[in-house]
Design goal:
Elements (H helix, E strand, L loop, with lengths): L1 H14 L19 H33 L3 H23 L4 E14 L2 E4 L10 E4 L2 E5 L1 H11 L2 H8 L4 H4 L17 H11 E6 L4 E8 L2 H59 L4 H32 L5 H25 L8 H38 L1 E8 L12 H30 L1
Antiparallel strand pairs: 1-4, 1-6, 1-7, 2-3, 5-6
Helix pairs in contact: 3-12, 4-8, 8-11, 9-10, 9-11
């Protein structure tokens, strides 16, 4: 059996071009050849073949490694590890946050003036009485103004006047990730505020939902209550501003008209002081009432004098008396006429007084009418201002929560893991597509 094995080995060496004598191969019964010396040329050929194939294979493998990491490594690093870390955070580290909700609506009071006859149409002499029924209507624009205020820096400043927000958002039970950073500035506090306070407007109904989160129940309730108080003050300021703007122009017109009336009365007083006449029209009436009897008396004396001249001598006592009476009455008539018409061109006549007085009196009447119209416009402006009254109605006030509703630990963990998986899958497919186009 040993001899057969030696023969087979010699045959193999000869086929390979190797002589056993050259390598001092000793084949004896019960012994094995010295393999390193025998297989040395074969090993050299095998190593040369490996070196020949090794360089392109190694180069190709290095290229693949440099272009894209293995899938399992990238999946472990970019998907599994972050998802596991987030799940552990939500399971064991994330602190409970209590949510408080409140619902309110911004309404405008609409009033309509209705004229009603209090006398029932009878002869009681009681005039019409105005009544103002009212109704509430939704104002969507004001609701958006309120929600913008709640999310603004102004709301943070107003709340800081009553509550220590930095202390509330850095409670000991808050975890490192959810709490407000140490020594946060007002800008960082406002940014953090927008994370903890949220609003939603139902467009059809105009109902505003306010949500506030905090690490303690009482803190969430306190913040929500202060926000409602601040929102109501804002609505009151808006209503007051609208009411003031609606009345300011009408009030200016009233003051302007009243000043014109006062000026007219001042001009009339100066006129009366200057000419010593209270009412030239009344003065002319009085002069006329005096003038008419004198004219009648003049006519009577003239008739008597005509008769006396025909029956008596011209120098008779009766004729002289009648002539004296006629001269006296004529002078009186001429004096009164001169006061009325100013036949001598005098500017101090009643006729000149009447022209100036009528001008001033007409100006006074017009100014009083303008003042009455301005007063009516002012009353209508007041009515419109009352119609623009805005109210904030809270029908679902904030209440103390019994359990934490945030964070949603399982849902957030699953959503985060799925998001990482989707992003990783997209990146892997993009890299694979690029490699396929390069081949």
């Amino acid at each position: 059996m040993m001899e057969e094995r030696n023969k087979d080995l010699e045959t193999s060496l000869k086929e390979g071009g190797i002589k056993a004598e050259d390598h001092e191969v000793v084949l004896t019964s019960g012994s094995r050849p010295h393999l390193p010396k025998i297989l040395k040329p074969v090993r050299q050929r095998i190593m040369q073949t490996i070196e020949h194939v090794k360089e392109p294979v190694a180069e190709k493998f290095t290229t693949l490694i440099g272009e894209a990491p293995p899938l399992w490594t990238s999946f472990l690093v970019f998907v599994l590890a972050p998802a596991l870390a987030v799940a552990l955070y939500f399971a064991f580290i994330a602190s409970d946050q209590y949510t408080v909700e409140a619902r309110f609506a911004v309404r405008a009071l609409e009033t309509d003036t209705v004229q009603t006859d209090a006398g029932g149409g009878g002869g009681s002499g009681v005039g019409p009485v105005s009544s103002s029924p009212f109704s509430f209507t939704a104002t969507g624009q004001n609701a958006y103004i309120v929600t913008a205020y709640i999310k603004s820096r102004a709301a943070v400043d107003d709340t800081l006047k009553k509550l220590n927000l930095r202390e509330i958002f850095r409670r000991p039970e808050a975890d490192f990730w959810a709490r407000l950073s140490q020594g946060a500035s007002i800008d960082k506090l406002a940014t953090y505020w927008n994370r903890m306070v949220d609003t939603y407007i139902d467009a059809p109904s105009g109902i505003v939902t306010l949500r506030v989160r905090a690490f303690r129940r009482e803190d969430a309730v306190a913040i929500a209550q202060n926000l409602l108080v601040g929102s109501e003050e804002l609505v009151n300021r808006i209503s007051e501003r609208a009411r003031r703007d609606a009345m300011v122009n009408a009030e200016k017109e009233v003051k302007k008209s009243f000043a014109a009336v006062e000026q007219s009365l001042t001009d009339l007083r100066k006129f009366r002081d200057q000419f010593g006449v209270i009412d030239p029209g009344q003065t002319s009436t009085q002069i006329g009432s005096l003038l008419m009897p004198l004219i009648g008396e003049q006519i009577r004396i003239e008739n008597e004098l005509f008769v006396a001249n025909r029956e008596m001598a011209a120098d008779s006592p009766i004729v002289r008396v009648l002539k004296d009476k006629l001269d006296s009455v004529t002078r009186q008539i001429n004096d009164l006429k001169s006061k009325l018409t100013g036949g001598k061109g005098d500017g101090g006549t009643v006729s000149s007084y009447i022209a100036k007085f009528e001008e001033l009196e007409m100006q006074r009447i017009l100014n009083e009418k303008f003042y009455a119209l301005a007063q009516a416009d002012f009353e209508r402006a007041q009515l419109r201002a009352n119609r623009q009254s805005i109210y904030l109605t809270v029908f679902d006030p904030p209440s103390m929560p019994e359990e934490s509703r945030y964070p949603r630990r399982i849902a957030f963990s699953i959503i985060f893991a799925l998001s990482l998986l989707i992003v990783w899958s997209i990146i892997v497919m993009i890299i694979a597509s690029i490699q396929d186009h390069q081949i």
